[in-house]
Each structure stands twice: as structure tokens, then as C-alpha cells.
Fold this protein.
Amino acid sequence: MNEFDKYITLELPIKKELQQIFIKAQPSVIFDIGACEGEDSIRYSNLFQAAKVYSFEPLPDNYNKCLRNFSKASNRIKVFQMALSSSNGSATFYVSSGNPDGVNQSEWDYGNKSSSLYPPDSSYNKLEWLKFEKEIEVETQTISFFCENQSITQIDFIHMDVQGAEIDVLKGAGNMLTSIKAIWLEVENVSMYKGQPLKRDVELFMKRANFIKVIDTAFGESGDQLYVNAQFYSIFNLFIIKSKIISKLKLIYFKLISIKKNR
């Protein structure tokens, strides 16, 4: 079994939370934005057997890998070669590449997972093996434009890994943003891409959009956050309260560890 096949058999990190969020009705529409090779699209399709998964990947090599992987996995996954963003048209896409020492690149491409609509920040060089040596033009669409063309009126869940372009994608949702029930996205506390919004910016945007943060793993340079739309899930939901308490306790713990290390 290669690394890709091993990965898609792993349990989703938010499986229990998603099952709780969608305990009354399973999701029917899932967006995987920044799908890479389609690994997470397959995992969500396996978890929610009735859902249609819309997968978005602008990088041509990755798009072709998605086509091959989905043909073997599920006919409920559709992949689109585009980047979702804040406007329709085209944009420069900064393509990542490289290979960590000791990793067999033929089994799974580790260098293709950091491409972005934002240029890399040269001041951030923690991954010396990661290179940005190529730029291409890619098609961009907004969520609202795409949904209108596809006759989609509601999105149940969004998985987003767009390397700094999270707010751009969400701004492009327009009025559709109020119909999104839950969002799982990556945030950074340090600038990995020039001009990217950081964790605090994403949190402020989501708060203003009436989303409740229920999971936060971004205690270091980067991590993931899970948000639920308060319109669909009350803040008094016991699950949400429990998750928020756990998240706060984790934050306090990591701050205490950091203070001890700096003494």
C-alpha cells in the first residue's frame, strides 16, 4: 500500500465532530477547496455516503491525479480545474515543489501541497526543501458564481486548504456564506505567504460572518480550525460548548508551556 492509499484509510481528525454536527441530517453537498490529489475528497465521500463532493484544484498535474483517483473511488466526486477566490477571471498561481530528505517522492508528492494564489514570503524559510520555482495562470471563480451555475443553493460543509487565501475564498461566497453550515480550514500565526491574512484576521472575519469556532489546533505556526454557522447550530448546543471549553484549555496549556520554556 502506497502513502496515498494509507492516508485515505486514516480516520478524519474531525470525524466525531462532523457526525455530531450532522446528527439530524447528513450533508448532501461538500466542497473540498484546494483538493491537491483528492485525498480528502475521497475521505469525506467515504464518511458521508449520500453526499456530492465538489473538488477544486487549479494545478494541472494535481487535477489529473484527482481524475485518476476519483475514477477508482466514487462517482459522487466531481473535480473542477480552477481556484476559488474573491473574483472571476484568472490569477497567478505560485507552484510549490520539492522533496523532504529520505522521502520516496514516487509514492506521494510532498512538494505539491503548498502552491498558492499568494506569493511565498521569503522571510519564512522553515522548510528548506520546499521550492517555488514556477508560476502559472489559473482560472478563478467565486463560490457564489460557481453555485449559481451549478444550481447549488446550500453548502453543508467546506474543507479548505488554500495556503493563505482563505478569506478571499469566503468573500467570494457572497450571500451564499449564510448557507454554509460548517467550515474546516487552515490558518497561520506567521506569514508564510506575502500579504496573507493570519489567524486573528480569519477569526475576526468568521466572527463577523456569524460563525462559531468550535475547534482550534493553531497553537504553533499553523493549524486548523472548525467553525459552525450559528444560524444552524445554536451556541447553547452542549457539543459546541464542550468543544469551546476544550479549545480554551488547550490554549491555556500551550501558553503555560511556552512561558516555562522562556524562563
Summary: The longest strand covers residues 131-141. Strands lie at 29-33, 52-56, 77-80, 83-84, 89-97, 131-141, 157-160, 182-188, 211-216, 222-229.
